[in-house]
């Protein structure tokens, strides 16, 4: 089980310190990029990814919650993102996913709570990550939507039946209470923000969400 701390909930005045703290128990970071159009919020962008890349060797997963992501794939690739995740709701075909791979980056596709898995079935053979949103994207600290669990189970089944290689990630309301059922459904990556950076014991929260401590 991999835990991906979401820096959206980190202390941006002490971002290096927060990243250094979680680096002890995980090897990837989740970076939410919002444009105020696709989602009703604005967050960080390319300069922050560049800065984080200089600071750490951790895997950086850039989650592009933006309209027209194809315009920015090259920039995020050059900034140092290792995985670039685009939303199924923002792409008309698989070209943005191919563009990501053409820049030698790991391609990911994400679906919002109202989007069925069937919408992305044609992409599953060519991506390294499928991100299931278990809240409506845009703001941290929301409650987990249990409707995500059947999607995780469906993705796990499709992966096994077709020998696909993607990881299943879940983002939204992930914490020490909800993580066991998410893992049981078939998730490989738990993305957590406030449950880690808002905790009195961030490292303890990571360890507890890992369960048996297997993996990074």
Automatic annotation (TrEMBL):
<dbReference type="InterPro" id="IPR000056">
    <property type="entry name" value="Ribul_P_3_epim-like"/>
</dbReference>
<keyword id="KW-0119">Carbohydrate metabolism</keyword>
<feature type="binding site">
    <location>
        <begin position="193"/>
        <end position="194"/>
    </location>
    <ligand>
        <name>substrate</name>
    </ligand>
</feature>
<comment type="function">
    <text>Catalyzes the reversible epimerization of D-ribulose 5-phosphate to D-xylulose 5-phosphate.</text>
</comment>
<dbReference type="GO" id="GO:0019323">
    <property type="term" value="P:pentose catabolic process"/>
</dbReference>
<dbReference type="GO" id="GO:0005737">
    <property type="term" value="C:cytoplasm"/>
</dbReference>
<feature type="binding site">
    <location>
        <position position="171"/>
    </location>
    <ligand>
        <name>a divalent metal cation</name>
    </ligand>
</feature>
<feature type="binding site">
    <location>
        <position position="63"/>
    </location>
    <ligand>
        <name>a divalent metal cation</name>
    </ligand>
</feature>
<protein>
    <recommendedName>
        <fullName>Ribulose-phosphate 3-epimerase</fullName>
        <ecNumber>5.1.3.1</ecNumber>
    </recommendedName>
</protein>
<feature type="active site" description="Proton donor">
    <location>
        <position position="171"/>
    </location>
</feature>
<keyword id="KW-0464">Manganese</keyword>
<dbReference type="InterPro" id="IPR013785">
    <property type="entry name" value="Aldolase_TIM"/>
</dbReference>
<keyword id="KW-0413">Isomerase</keyword>
<feature type="binding site">
    <location>
        <position position="6"/>
    </location>
    <ligand>
        <name>substrate</name>
    </ligand>
</feature>
<feature type="active site" description="Proton acceptor">
    <location>
        <position position="32"/>
    </location>
</feature>
<keyword id="KW-0862">Zinc</keyword>
<feature type="binding site">
    <location>
        <position position="30"/>
    </location>
    <ligand>
        <name>a divalent metal cation</name>
    </ligand>
</feature>
<feature type="binding site">
    <location>
        <position position="32"/>
    </location>
    <ligand>
        <name>a divalent metal cation</name>
    </ligand>
</feature>
<dbReference type="Pfam" id="PF00834">
    <property type="entry name" value="Ribul_P_3_epim"/>
</dbReference>
<feature type="binding site">
    <location>
        <position position="63"/>
    </location>
    <ligand>
        <name>substrate</name>
    </ligand>
</feature>
<feature type="binding site">
    <location>
        <position position="173"/>
    </location>
    <ligand>
        <name>substrate</name>
    </ligand>
</feature>
<dbReference type="GO" id="GO:0004750">
    <property type="term" value="F:D-ribulose-phosphate 3-epimerase activity"/>
</dbReference>
<keyword id="KW-0479">Metal-binding</keyword>
<feature type="binding site">
    <location>
        <begin position="171"/>
        <end position="173"/>
    </location>
    <ligand>
        <name>substrate</name>
    </ligand>
</feature>
<keyword id="KW-0170">Cobalt</keyword>
<comment type="similarity">
    <text>Belongs to the ribulose-phosphate 3-epimerase family.</text>
</comment>
<dbReference type="InterPro" id="IPR011060">
    <property type="entry name" value="RibuloseP-bd_barrel"/>
</dbReference>
<comment type="pathway">
    <text>Carbohydrate degradation.</text>
</comment>
<dbReference type="GO" id="GO:0046872">
    <property type="term" value="F:metal ion binding"/>
</dbReference>
<feature type="binding site">
    <location>
        <begin position="138"/>
        <end position="141"/>
    </location>
    <ligand>
        <name>substrate</name>
    </ligand>
</feature>
<dbReference type="GO" id="GO:0006098">
    <property type="term" value="P:pentose-phosphate shunt"/>
</dbReference>
<dbReference type="InterPro" id="IPR026019">
    <property type="entry name" value="Ribul_P_3_epim"/>
</dbReference>
């Amino acid at each position: 089980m991999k835990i991906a701390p979401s820096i959206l909930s980190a202390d941006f005045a002490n971002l290096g310190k927060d990243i250094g703290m979680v680096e002890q128990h995980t090897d990837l970071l989740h970076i939410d990029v919002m444009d105020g159009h696709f989602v009703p919020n604005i967050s960080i962008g390319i300069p922050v990814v560049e800065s984080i890349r200089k600071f750490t060797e951790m895997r950086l997963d850039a989650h592009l919650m933006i309209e027209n992501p194809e315009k920015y794939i090259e920039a995020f690739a050059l900034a140092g993102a290792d995985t670039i995740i685009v939303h199924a709701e923002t792409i008309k075909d698989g070209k943005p996913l191919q563009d990501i791979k053409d820049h030698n980056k790991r391609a990911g596709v994400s679906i919002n709570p109202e989007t069925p898995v069937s919408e992305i079935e044609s992409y599953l053979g060519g991506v390294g990550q499928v991100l299931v949103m278990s809240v409506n994207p845009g703001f941290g600290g929301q409650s987990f939507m249990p409707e995500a669990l059947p999607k995780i189970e469906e993705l796990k089944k499709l992966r096994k039946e077709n020998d696909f290689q993607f990881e299943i990630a879940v983002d939204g309301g992930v914490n020490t209470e909800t993580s066991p059922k998410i893992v049981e459904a078939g998730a490989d990556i738990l993305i957590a923000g406030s449950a880690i950076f808002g905790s009195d014991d961030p490292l303890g929260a990571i360890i507890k969400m890992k369960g048996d401590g297997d993996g990074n």
